[in-house]
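Handover notes (outgoing to incoming on-call)

Open items:
1. Substrate-binding domain-containing protein: sequence verified, structure written out, both below. Nothing else pending on this one.
2. Nothing else urgent.
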Amino acid sequence: MARDTLEVAFVVPRSGPAAIVGPSCEACGLLAVDEVNAGGGMLGREVRLRVVDGGRAPRAVAGEIDGLLSAGAVEAVTGWHISAVRQQVAPIVSGRAPYVYSPLYEGGERTPGVYLAGETPDRQLLPALRWMAGELGVRTWCVVGDDYVWPLASAAVARHYARRRTDIRILDEVFVPLGTLDFAAAVHRVERSGADGVLMLLVGSDAVRFNRAFAAAGLDSACVRLSPLMEENMVFATGAAATHDLYAASGYFEALPTSSGLDFSRRYAARFGVQAPVPGSLGESCYEGVTLLARMAERAGSLGSDELAAAAETLAYDSPRGSVRMAGNHLLQSVYLARADGLGLDVVAQLTP
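Substrate-binding domain-containing protein C-alpha coordinates:
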Protein backbone atom coordinates (compact mmCIF):
# COMPACT_ATOMS: atom_id res chain seq x y z
CA MET A 1 0.00 0.00 0.00
CA ALA A 2 1.38 3.39 -1.00
CA ARG A 3 2.10 5.43 2.12
CA ASP A 4 0.96 8.66 0.46
CA THR A 5 -2.61 7.32 0.43
CA LEU A 6 -4.86 6.20 3.27
CA GLU A 7 -7.35 3.50 2.30
CA VAL A 8 -10.63 3.33 4.22
CA ALA A 9 -13.02 0.37 4.00
CA PHE A 10 -16.36 1.95 3.16
CA VAL A 11 -19.10 -0.52 4.08
CA VAL A 12 -22.37 0.43 2.39
CA PRO A 13 -25.27 -1.62 0.97
CA ARG A 14 -25.06 -2.57 -2.69
CA SER A 15 -27.45 -5.50 -2.24
CA GLY A 16 -30.35 -6.49 -0.01
CA PRO A 17 -33.26 -4.36 1.30
CA ALA A 18 -30.99 -1.42 2.17
CA ALA A 19 -29.52 -1.16 -1.34
CA ILE A 20 -32.12 1.49 -2.13
CA VAL A 21 -30.01 3.99 -0.15
CA GLY A 22 -26.63 2.70 -1.36
CA PRO A 23 -26.13 5.26 -4.16
CA SER A 24 -26.81 8.14 -1.77
CA CYS A 25 -24.40 6.65 0.77
CA GLU A 26 -21.63 6.33 -1.82
CA ALA A 27 -22.14 9.86 -3.16
CA CYS A 28 -22.08 11.42 0.31
CA GLY A 29 -18.97 9.45 1.23
CA LEU A 30 -17.22 10.64 -1.93
CA LEU A 31 -18.14 14.26 -1.20
CA ALA A 32 -16.62 13.95 2.29
CA VAL A 33 -13.42 12.45 0.84
CA ASP A 34 -13.21 15.23 -1.75
CA GLU A 35 -13.42 17.83 0.98
CA VAL A 36 -10.97 16.07 3.29
CA ASN A 37 -8.44 15.74 0.45
CA ALA A 38 -8.95 19.36 -0.61
CA GLY A 39 -7.96 20.31 2.93
CA GLY A 40 -4.72 18.35 2.84
CA GLY A 41 -5.99 14.81 3.34
CA MET A 42 -5.98 12.75 6.51
CA LEU A 43 -2.68 12.89 8.40
CA GLY A 44 -1.22 14.47 5.26
CA ARG A 45 -2.27 11.54 3.06
CA GLU A 46 -4.84 11.30 0.29
CA VAL A 47 -7.93 9.41 1.47
CA ARG A 48 -9.42 6.73 -0.75
CA LEU A 49 -12.56 4.71 -0.13
CA ARG A 50 -12.62 0.98 -0.82
CA VAL A 51 -16.29 0.04 -1.12
CA VAL A 52 -17.38 -3.16 0.62
CA ASP A 53 -20.93 -4.41 0.02
CA GLY A 54 -22.52 -4.20 3.47
CA GLY A 55 -25.83 -5.64 2.26
CA ARG A 56 -24.53 -9.22 2.37
CA ALA A 57 -24.63 -11.67 5.27
CA PRO A 58 -22.89 -10.15 8.32
CA ARG A 59 -20.25 -12.91 8.53
CA ALA A 60 -19.34 -12.42 4.87
CA VAL A 61 -18.87 -8.69 5.38
CA ALA A 62 -16.78 -9.22 8.50
CA GLY A 63 -14.67 -11.81 6.68
CA GLU A 64 -13.87 -9.37 3.90
CA ILE A 65 -12.91 -6.65 6.39
CA ASP A 66 -10.70 -9.12 8.24
CA GLY A 67 -8.92 -9.99 5.01
CA LEU A 68 -8.40 -6.34 4.06
CA LEU A 69 -6.94 -5.51 7.48
CA SER A 70 -4.70 -8.58 7.48
CA ALA A 71 -3.35 -7.64 4.06
CA GLY A 72 -2.71 -4.05 5.15
CA ALA A 73 -5.07 -2.90 2.40
CA VAL A 74 -7.11 -0.58 4.65
CA GLU A 75 -6.37 1.40 7.82
CA ALA A 76 -9.86 2.40 8.95
CA VAL A 77 -13.51 1.38 8.51
CA THR A 78 -16.69 3.43 8.19
CA GLY A 79 -20.04 3.42 6.39
CA TRP A 80 -23.77 2.76 6.69
CA HIS A 81 -24.82 -0.86 7.31
CA ILE A 82 -27.25 -2.59 9.65
CA SER A 83 -26.44 -3.38 13.28
CA ALA A 84 -26.20 -7.11 12.58
CA VAL A 85 -23.21 -6.34 10.36
CA ARG A 86 -21.70 -3.98 12.94
CA GLN A 87 -21.87 -6.65 15.63
CA GLN A 88 -19.78 -8.96 13.44
CA VAL A 89 -17.35 -6.27 12.22
CA ALA A 90 -16.65 -4.51 15.55
CA PRO A 91 -14.73 -7.34 17.28
CA ILE A 92 -12.80 -8.01 14.05
CA VAL A 93 -11.68 -4.38 13.82
CA SER A 94 -11.14 -3.58 17.51
CA GLY A 95 -7.47 -3.06 18.33
CA ARG A 96 -6.50 -3.09 14.65
CA ALA A 97 -8.07 0.04 13.14
CA PRO A 98 -10.58 2.79 13.99
CA TYR A 99 -14.19 2.03 13.08
CA VAL A 100 -16.70 4.88 12.68
CA TYR A 101 -20.21 3.45 12.44
CA SER A 102 -22.33 6.13 10.81
CA PRO A 103 -26.04 5.10 11.10
CA LEU A 104 -28.63 5.55 13.79
CA TYR A 105 -28.66 2.43 15.93
CA GLU A 106 -30.10 0.85 19.08
CA GLY A 107 -27.45 2.18 21.49
CA GLY A 108 -25.08 0.45 23.88
CA GLU A 109 -22.02 -0.13 21.64
CA ARG A 110 -18.86 0.05 23.77
CA THR A 111 -16.29 -1.96 21.78
CA PRO A 112 -12.91 -0.18 22.05
CA GLY A 113 -12.04 1.71 18.90
CA VAL A 114 -15.65 1.94 17.67
CA TYR A 115 -17.16 5.42 17.29
CA LEU A 116 -20.85 6.06 16.62
CA ALA A 117 -21.95 8.98 14.44
CA GLY A 118 -25.71 8.29 14.42
CA GLU A 119 -28.77 8.82 16.53
CA THR A 120 -29.81 6.61 19.47
CA PRO A 121 -33.34 5.92 20.79
CA ASP A 122 -33.02 8.20 23.83
CA ARG A 123 -32.45 11.21 21.55
CA GLN A 124 -34.54 10.15 18.54
CA LEU A 125 -37.22 7.50 18.99
CA LEU A 126 -38.41 8.27 22.52
CA PRO A 127 -38.68 12.06 22.07
CA ALA A 128 -40.61 11.40 18.84
CA LEU A 129 -43.10 9.16 20.67
CA ARG A 130 -43.51 11.84 23.35
CA TRP A 131 -44.06 14.54 20.70
CA MET A 132 -46.64 12.43 18.85
CA ALA A 133 -48.57 11.87 22.08
CA GLY A 134 -48.48 15.51 23.15
CA GLU A 135 -49.00 17.23 19.79
CA LEU A 136 -51.13 14.75 17.84
CA GLY A 137 -52.74 12.68 20.57
CA VAL A 138 -51.20 9.47 19.18
CA ARG A 139 -50.86 7.33 22.31
CA THR A 140 -51.27 3.69 21.25
CA TRP A 141 -48.82 1.95 18.95
CA CYS A 142 -48.27 -1.24 16.99
CA VAL A 143 -44.62 -1.99 16.21
CA VAL A 144 -43.76 -3.43 12.79
CA GLY A 145 -40.08 -4.22 12.37
CA ASP A 146 -37.51 -6.39 10.67
CA ASP A 147 -36.38 -9.35 12.73
CA TYR A 148 -32.82 -8.42 13.71
CA VAL A 149 -30.99 -6.54 16.44
CA TRP A 150 -31.84 -2.86 15.73
CA PRO A 151 -35.65 -3.25 15.49
CA LEU A 152 -35.80 -5.78 18.34
CA ALA A 153 -33.67 -3.69 20.70
CA SER A 154 -35.36 -0.41 19.73
CA ALA A 155 -38.79 -1.95 20.31
CA ALA A 156 -37.63 -3.12 23.74
CA VAL A 157 -36.52 0.46 24.57
CA ALA A 158 -39.89 1.81 23.42
CA ARG A 159 -41.72 -0.85 25.45
CA HIS A 160 -39.77 0.01 28.60
CA TYR A 161 -40.40 3.72 28.04
CA ALA A 162 -44.14 3.17 27.58
CA ARG A 163 -44.34 1.25 30.86
CA ARG A 164 -43.08 4.33 32.71
CA ARG A 165 -45.64 6.67 31.13
CA THR A 166 -49.42 6.93 31.29
CA ASP A 167 -49.87 8.45 27.82
CA ILE A 168 -48.09 5.85 25.65
CA ARG A 169 -48.93 2.16 25.17
CA ILE A 170 -47.53 -0.54 22.91
CA LEU A 171 -50.45 -2.77 21.90
CA ASP A 172 -48.74 -5.27 19.60
CA GLU A 173 -45.38 -6.05 17.99
CA VAL A 174 -44.83 -7.75 14.62
CA PHE A 175 -41.39 -8.73 13.30
CA VAL A 176 -40.72 -10.01 9.79
CA PRO A 177 -37.61 -11.36 8.03
CA LEU A 178 -35.36 -8.89 6.22
CA GLY A 179 -36.39 -8.82 2.58
CA THR A 180 -40.06 -9.59 3.20
CA LEU A 181 -42.15 -9.17 0.04
CA ASP A 182 -45.71 -9.63 1.35
CA PHE A 183 -46.84 -7.45 4.26
CA ALA A 184 -50.52 -8.43 4.21
CA ALA A 185 -50.29 -10.32 7.52
CA ALA A 186 -48.44 -7.45 9.21
CA VAL A 187 -51.00 -4.93 7.97
CA HIS A 188 -53.79 -7.15 9.29
CA ARG A 189 -52.12 -7.24 12.73
CA VAL A 190 -51.94 -3.44 12.75
CA GLU A 191 -55.63 -3.15 11.88
CA ARG A 192 -56.60 -5.71 14.50
CA SER A 193 -54.57 -3.94 17.21
CA GLY A 194 -56.63 -0.77 16.93
CA ALA A 195 -53.51 1.34 17.49
CA ASP A 196 -53.38 5.05 16.72
CA GLY A 197 -49.96 4.69 15.15
CA VAL A 198 -47.44 2.27 13.65
CA LEU A 199 -43.85 2.41 14.85
CA MET A 200 -41.99 1.32 11.73
CA LEU A 201 -38.61 -0.29 12.35
CA LEU A 202 -38.14 -1.48 8.78
CA VAL A 203 -35.14 -1.13 6.47
CA GLY A 204 -35.10 0.22 2.92
CA SER A 205 -37.32 -1.63 0.47
CA ASP A 206 -39.05 -3.44 3.35
CA ALA A 207 -40.36 -0.06 4.55
CA VAL A 208 -41.38 0.86 1.00
CA ARG A 209 -43.39 -2.35 0.55
CA PHE A 210 -45.04 -1.99 3.94
CA ASN A 211 -46.03 1.62 3.18
CA ARG A 212 -47.67 0.59 -0.06
CA ALA A 213 -49.54 -2.34 1.52
CA PHE A 214 -50.60 -0.14 4.45
CA ALA A 215 -52.05 2.53 2.15
CA ALA A 216 -53.67 -0.05 -0.15
CA ALA A 217 -55.56 -1.39 2.87
CA GLY A 218 -56.85 2.11 3.61
CA LEU A 219 -55.18 2.31 7.03
CA ASP A 220 -53.35 5.53 6.23
CA SER A 221 -56.60 7.45 6.74
CA ALA A 222 -56.94 6.26 10.34
CA CYS A 223 -53.44 5.47 11.60
CA VAL A 224 -50.18 7.48 11.48
CA ARG A 225 -46.75 5.99 10.87
CA LEU A 226 -43.49 6.95 12.57
CA SER A 227 -40.05 5.75 11.48
CA PRO A 228 -36.51 6.54 12.68
CA LEU A 229 -35.24 5.09 9.39
CA MET A 230 -37.25 6.87 6.72
CA GLU A 231 -35.48 9.19 4.30
CA GLU A 232 -36.18 10.97 1.05
CA ASN A 233 -35.17 8.19 -1.38
CA MET A 234 -37.43 5.74 0.46
CA VAL A 235 -40.31 8.24 0.43
CA PHE A 236 -39.84 8.72 -3.31
CA ALA A 237 -39.88 4.95 -3.87
CA THR A 238 -43.02 4.63 -1.72
CA GLY A 239 -44.93 7.08 -3.92
CA ALA A 240 -47.03 10.09 -2.97
CA ALA A 241 -50.22 8.02 -2.77
CA ALA A 242 -48.84 6.00 0.16
CA THR A 243 -47.17 8.65 2.33
CA HIS A 244 -50.17 10.28 4.05
CA ASP A 245 -49.48 10.85 7.77
CA LEU A 246 -45.99 9.35 7.55
CA TYR A 247 -43.48 10.85 10.01
CA ALA A 248 -39.72 10.42 10.34
CA ALA A 249 -37.24 11.37 13.07
CA SER A 250 -33.62 12.09 12.17
CA GLY A 251 -30.62 14.31 12.74
CA TYR A 252 -30.70 15.38 9.11
CA PHE A 253 -33.24 15.98 6.36
CA GLU A 254 -32.51 17.30 2.90
CA ALA A 255 -35.06 20.08 3.58
CA LEU A 256 -33.53 21.03 6.93
CA PRO A 257 -33.70 24.85 6.88
CA THR A 258 -30.37 25.57 8.55
CA SER A 259 -27.39 27.35 7.02
CA SER A 260 -25.14 24.29 7.43
CA GLY A 261 -27.75 21.95 5.96
CA LEU A 262 -28.48 24.21 2.99
CA ASP A 263 -24.77 24.67 2.32
CA PHE A 264 -24.26 20.90 2.32
CA SER A 265 -27.08 20.50 -0.23
CA ARG A 266 -25.47 23.17 -2.41
CA ARG A 267 -22.07 21.44 -2.34
CA TYR A 268 -23.65 18.06 -3.02
CA ALA A 269 -25.57 19.40 -6.04
CA ALA A 270 -22.46 21.13 -7.37
CA ARG A 271 -20.48 17.87 -7.13
CA PHE A 272 -23.03 15.38 -8.48
CA GLY A 273 -25.70 17.39 -10.31
CA VAL A 274 -29.44 17.67 -9.85
CA GLN A 275 -30.11 14.13 -11.11
CA ALA A 276 -28.11 12.52 -8.27
CA PRO A 277 -29.85 10.56 -5.50
CA VAL A 278 -31.20 12.82 -2.77
CA PRO A 279 -28.67 13.11 0.09
CA GLY A 280 -31.11 11.84 2.74
CA SER A 281 -30.30 11.14 6.36
CA LEU A 282 -28.86 7.69 5.72
CA GLY A 283 -26.58 8.86 2.94
CA GLU A 284 -25.57 12.00 4.80
CA SER A 285 -24.57 9.84 7.78
CA CYS A 286 -21.78 8.47 5.56
CA TYR A 287 -20.53 12.03 5.07
CA GLU A 288 -20.56 12.32 8.88
CA GLY A 289 -18.65 9.05 9.26
CA VAL A 290 -15.78 10.09 6.99
CA THR A 291 -15.71 13.61 8.43
CA LEU A 292 -15.67 12.39 12.04
CA LEU A 293 -12.82 10.00 11.29
CA ALA A 294 -10.82 12.84 9.67
CA ARG A 295 -11.54 15.25 12.53
CA MET A 296 -10.41 12.75 15.16
CA ALA A 297 -7.28 11.82 13.20
CA GLU A 298 -6.38 15.47 12.68
CA ARG A 299 -6.70 16.16 16.39
CA ALA A 300 -4.93 12.96 17.47
CA GLY A 301 -2.10 13.22 14.95
CA SER A 302 -2.37 9.48 14.28
CA LEU A 303 -4.80 6.57 13.96
CA GLY A 304 -3.61 5.02 17.22
CA SER A 305 -6.43 3.83 19.44
CA ASP A 306 -5.33 5.70 22.58
CA GLU A 307 -4.68 8.92 20.68
CA LEU A 308 -8.05 8.79 18.91
CA ALA A 309 -9.93 8.07 22.13
CA ALA A 310 -8.30 11.06 23.81
CA ALA A 311 -8.96 13.30 20.79
CA ALA A 312 -12.63 12.32 20.69
CA GLU A 313 -13.34 13.26 24.30
CA THR A 314 -13.93 16.98 23.71
CA LEU A 315 -14.28 17.09 19.93
CA ALA A 316 -16.94 19.48 18.60
CA TYR A 317 -17.50 20.96 15.14
CA ASP A 318 -20.12 22.24 12.70
CA SER A 319 -21.62 19.69 10.31
CA PRO A 320 -24.61 19.53 7.94
CA ARG A 321 -26.53 18.46 11.05
CA GLY A 322 -25.56 21.66 12.86
CA SER A 323 -23.29 21.81 15.89
CA VAL A 324 -22.21 18.33 16.94
CA ARG A 325 -19.98 17.09 19.74
CA MET A 326 -18.56 13.83 21.00
CA ALA A 327 -19.63 12.36 24.34
CA GLY A 328 -17.74 9.16 25.04
CA ASN A 329 -17.74 7.32 21.72
CA HIS A 330 -21.00 8.87 20.45
CA LEU A 331 -21.57 11.95 18.30
CA LEU A 332 -24.37 14.01 19.85
CA GLN A 333 -26.56 16.06 17.53
CA SER A 334 -29.91 17.78 17.27
CA VAL A 335 -32.77 15.57 16.08
CA TYR A 336 -35.80 16.68 14.08
CA LEU A 337 -39.24 15.37 13.21
CA ALA A 338 -40.49 15.58 9.64
CA ARG A 339 -43.81 14.79 7.96
CA ALA A 340 -44.09 13.41 4.46
CA ASP A 341 -45.65 15.80 1.97
CA GLY A 342 -46.13 13.92 -1.27
CA LEU A 343 -42.61 12.89 -2.29
CA GLY A 344 -40.72 15.01 0.24
CA LEU A 345 -40.20 15.37 3.97
CA ASP A 346 -40.98 18.68 5.67
CA VAL A 347 -39.41 19.38 9.07
CA VAL A 348 -42.11 20.18 11.64
CA ALA A 349 -40.27 20.17 14.97
CA GLN A 350 -36.96 19.87 16.75
CA LEU A 351 -37.10 17.12 19.34
CA THR A 352 -35.95 17.51 22.94
CA PRO A 353 -33.84 14.61 24.27
